[in-house]
# Entry
Amino acid sequence: MLNIGAGELLLLLLVFAVLLGSLSILVRATRRARDAGESARLRELEARLRELEKRP
# Structure
């Protein structure tokens, strides 16, 4: 059986919290990048639509 002391347990919990925080930051950065890409694509499509509307 594992014999884990209070210090080791606190250290493991701290490492786990840091890993979860890092994962959260990575997920947010990925979502922002995806949203930025979608916004750029939308602006491009809107510009094309305006060009088509200007044609006689």
User: Anything to note?
Assistant: The mean pLDDT is 93.
